[in-house]
Design a protein that fits this description.
Elements: H1 2-19, H2 22-29, H3 32-40, H4 46-59, H5 65-76, H6 78-112, H7 116-136, H8 144-153, H9 158-184, H10 190-219
Helix pairs in contact: 3-5, 4-5, 4-6, 5-6, 5-9, 6-8, 6-9, 7-9
Length: about 220
């Protein structure tokens, strides 16, 4: 009961921040220049506001993470903005992971723990959880919240999740920070964005090819 009350309190506070505050309203509009100006107006406190915004975005993805990362780049510059977004993304993932583990793990064990699939999944999470989480962070179409929640209800240990997330989020957040910056200055970076989109398409096609090849190998 305490877990449910704590989780409900956390969600109520988060909803209030998103729906009833000026910054929450700006996040919902998705206007990067206004978000960046609002962040900058708070001076050194802006670092914490940016991190809070990323945590809120994890639970209520009203705007894509790439836009908040772009706003941070506009507000602080590329490398400081990237660092802030990286810290925020890791903290948001940890909050999501701990909430899933604190609330959902026992329920998931009772519901599906006796199934052979769940047992094999937990065994795999314990032995190869680091690699799975690390590479999951690098797949653009895989929602971060899905990775966090799945890890939270599995038996992967907290330290493994923290290390894999910290390392895996680095390249992903840097990429999204650069893309977000390009989106803000769309007119000057059309060619670069088209090149990135083409590269992502090739990447996804490559993943599909590897999956098909692996499947055919297993069937042969």
């Amino acid at each position: 009961m305490k877990r449910l009350l704590l989780s409900a309190f956390f969600l109520i506070v988060t909803i209030y921040l998103v729906m009833q505050t000026e910054f929450g309203h700006l996040i919902r509009t998705g206007n990067l220049e206004q978000i960046a100006a609002y962040i900058q107006s708070y001076g050194w406190v802006a670092f914490f506001i940016s991190i809070i915004a990323i945590v809120l975005q994890t639970f209520f993805p009203i705007v894509p993470f790439v836009l908040l990362a772009g706003a941070n780049v506009v507000a602080f510059g590329l490398w400081p903005g990237f660092a802030i977004s990286w810290v925020g993304a890791v903290l948001a993932a940890l909050a999501n992971f701990l909430l899933a583990r604190y609330v959902g793990r026992e329920w998931a064990d009772r519901k599906w723990g006796h199934h052979s699939f769940a047992k094999n999944l937990n065994k795999y999470a314990e032995t190869k959880g680091f690699i799975v989480i690390l590479f999951a962070r690098w797949v653009p179409v895989l929602p971060s919240s899905a990775v966090n929640t799945a890890a939270g209800i599995s038996k992967v240990c907290f330290r493994t999740f923290l290390l894999a997330t910290t390392l895996g989020k680095g390249p992903a957040v840097l990429f999204e920070s650069v893309v977000g910056h390009y989106l803000v200055h769309w007119e000057q970076h059309k060619g670069k964005l088209l090149f990135i989109a083409f590269g992502l398409c090739l990447f996804m096609l490559g993943i599909s090819y590897v999956k098909r090849k692996k499947k055919l190998t297993l069937l042969s």
